[in-house]
Amino acid sequence: MRTAHRVETVRAAEAALMARLPEGALMQRAAAGLAAACCSLLGKGRVYGARVVLLVGSGDNGGDALYAGARLARRGAGVTAVPLGTRTHPGGLAALRAAGGRITDDPFEALAVADLVLDGITGIGGRGGLRPDAVPVARAARGSGAVVVAVDLPSGVDADTGEVAGEALRADATITFGTYKPGLLVDPAREYAGALRLVDIGLDAVLPGVPDLEALQHQDVAWLLPVPGAESDKYRRGVLGVVAGSARYPGAAVLAVAGALRGGAGAVRYVGPAGDAVIAAHPETLVHAGPPSKAGRVQAWVVGPGLGEDPGPVAEVLAADVPVLVDADGLRGLDPAAVRARTAPTLLTPHAGEAAALLGVAREDVEAGRLAAVRELAARFGATVLLKGSTTLVCGPGGGPVRVNPTGTSWLATAGSGDVLSGLAGSLLAAGLSALDAGSCGAYLHGLAARRASAAGAPVTATDVAGSLRDAWLDVTSPA
Ligand SMILES: NC(=O)C1=CN([C@@H]2O[C@H](COP(=O)(O)OP(=O)(O)OC[C@H]3O[C@@H](n4cnc5c(N)ncnc54)[C@H](O)[C@@H]3O)[C@@H](O)[C@H]2O)[C@@H](O)CC1
Ligand SMILES: Nc1ncnc2c1ncn2[C@@H]1O[C@H](COP(=O)(O)OP(=O)(O)O)[C@@H](O)[C@H]1O
Ligand SMILES: [K+]
After folding, report:
1. Sheet holding 267-271, edge to edge
2. How far, in Å, CA of 49 to CA of 334, rounded?
3. Any idea where the YjeF C-terminal domain is (predicted)?
4. Domain final position from 212, 239, 270
5. How many Å apart are CA 174 and CA 184, to the nearest integer?
6. For position 314, what pLDDT does the model report?
7. 472, containing H or E segment
8. Is there a single domain that holds both residue 173 and residue 226?
9. Which ligand 2 atom is the nearest neighbour of the CA of 351?
10. Cα separation of 386 and 346, whole Å?
11. Which of 412, 446, 464 to mutate for ligand 2's pocket (most ligand atoms within 8 Å of CB)?
């Protein structure tokens, strides 16, 4: 599991750790890790003679860059510092000078020939976008042929929320210290971070056990995925009911069932008007044309994909005392009180547009502040919420760590892929996973399947994604 902590928590942990260490030791650990990462990015034998430019803000982030620059200078790199703040870390500056580095007021000349730029303008102390004087320098750094390495965080992004309020410096790699910060894992900021590397500075010992964000990895998902026992039968494995599709959107039913059949439930009951299309595509489905309450027992429901205007089945399904996943048309006008009144778990899976409608805000606001949006929806509905999009987030009703999905690809932005996800996550619910685990494992497999299907770099369909779910499952469960 990869975990991230907010700035307040990081600062408290750093203070506790610093109290046990000689002064400056923590910054030296950070600088040593940063310099080593820069050496490996430059490549073997290419540190000596490399031209390195340090963009140095007024805080400790600039201090890290200066001390790392001093280390690179001692290994033969030509290091030039560009001070951008109201002050420059005095110890770092002295170390760089002592190692033979130089300071310049003309950043553009140095940047034009740079091999590597260290962005030490702001770290966890940054507020808002880059200040106006740093903007042309950041643009020149990005426009140069140099590899741009962000120190701790790309400057100009919000560490806690992943918001990017103004201009920020896009990095090829970010070397972060002690723990990931939420902004490194959540778009739009995540996109500025490039490849992530975590430097251990001993913070784990003093960080709280519960992080703000967590990202599952293969072995976490492998642990959670259902496996039939020797005594299992199709009912014990869990039956999922899928209420989806309409005369206008029969394909949504076919796709939701495609996801559901590959999610570990023992059987899938389809309820709705698209039974013929579902059976033609998936003959193993049990179909029912009547209302959900007459369809027979299920261990979980999915309601909503392609349902059209009729909200009737949503209320009926919400009245059932089993876990329910509500997606797409099922989310339209959804009443928070009706969801809060349920005793069984509810999993809502909106995309940004649906989340915006539920919150009464603009879609852009949800996309700019995904973490706040998913937390607010989960609190308002007393439900687990999976917010889809370029970064998929899953938040439980009681707060706690938000799960951020590390798999996925923008090729997933294709019609019907959300229907596949709802069936898949619903199937995991029916198999007995909690709403948080079903949502996050579903998103994980779904993203992995899309990556596999689009590995050659060509567009994929939702049907292709469903077809790759089995391989994604095997990727996760097969020992490396
Ligand atoms: N506290 C510690 O023990 C450690 C901190 N470390 C480093 O210290 C950083 C945090 O240092 P600071 O607390 O000094 O904060 P920062 O260095 O991130 O930024 C603070 C400074 O930047 C200015 N600033 C804020 N927003 C700005 C903007 N948008 N544009 C330009 N300037 C802006 C502030 O006025 C202030 O002077 C971490 O990100 C990390 O790089 C590491 O050395 C590890 C140890
Ligand atoms: N830019 C993107 N990067 C990664 N995944 C994306 C992106 N855009 C959409 N997705 C994913 O694609 C799926 C689309 O679902 P949804 O918006 O419900 O579409 P539909 O209703 O057509 O099925 C979701 O799983 C979402 O997370
Ligand atoms: K930085």
Report:
1. 2-4, 213-215, 399-404, 393-396, 384-387, 346-349, 324-327, 300-303, 239-243, 267-271, 286-288
2. 63
3. 217-476
4. 212
5. 9
6. 96
7. helix 469-477
8. no
9. 17
10. 11
11. 412
Between strands 147-151 and 399-404, the pairing is: unpaired
Written as one letter, the residue type at 426 is G
* pLDDT tens figures, 320-363: 999 999 999 999 999 999 999 999 999 999 999 999 999 999 99
What is the span of the domain harbouring residue 432? 218-477
State what percent of residues in the chain have pLDDT above 70.
100
Q: Quick one: tokens of 356?
A: 């915006």
Mutate to test the pocket of ligand 2, among 351, 374, 409, 469 (most ligand atoms within 8 A of CB): 351
CATH number of the domain within which 137 lies: 3.40.50.10260
Within this chain, do residues 233 and 201 fall inside the same structural domain, yes or no? no
Q: Encode pLDDT of 65-104 as tens digits.
A: 999 999 999 999 999 999 998 999 999 999 999 999 999 9
Residue nearest to atom 25 of ligand 2 (CA): 418
Give yes or no: residues 71 and 105 share one domain: yes
- Indicate whether 280 and 187 sit together in one domain: no
Query: What is the CA(59)–ligand 1 centre distance, in A?
Result: 4
* pLDDT of 480 strictly over 80: no
Last residue of a domain, one of 212, 243, 277: 212
Q: Does one domain contain both 411 and 266?
A: yes
Query: 288 pLDDT exceeds 90?
Result: yes
Residue 187 tokens read as: 């778009």
Q: Which amino acid is at 271?
A: V
Same domain as 193, residue 230? no
Given a contact cutoff of 8 angstroms between Cβ atoms, the answer to whether 203 and 179 are in contact is yes
Q: Which ligand is nearest to the CA of 386?
A: 2
Number of domains composing the chain: 2
329 with 248, same domain: the answer is yes
**Which protein residues are within 6 Å of ligand 1, measured from CB?**
14, 18, 26-27, 30, 57-62, 64, 85, 121-128, 130-131, 134, 151-152, 177, 201
Pocket of ligand 2 (CB under 6 A): 328, 351, 388-390, 392, 408-410, 412-413, 415-419, 421, 446
Given a cut of 90, whether residue 312 has pLDDT beyond it is no
Tell me, in angstroms, the distance from the centre of ligand 2 to residue 382's CA: 24
Neighbours of 337 (CB within 10 A): 8
pLDDT at position 27, please?
A: 97
Alpha-carbon span 437 to 207, nearest angstrom? 24
Q: For residues 424 and 25, what is the distance between their CA atoms, to the nearest angstrom?
A: 49
Over residues 386-442, the pLDDT tens digits come to: 999 999 999 999 989 999 999 989 999 999 999 999 999 999 999 999 999 999 999
Q: Are 134 and 6 contained in the same domain?
A: yes
Q: Which pLDDT belongs to residue 310?
A: 79
**Domain harbouring 358, CATH code:** 3.40.1190.20
Q: What is the pTM for the complete model shown?
A: 0.95
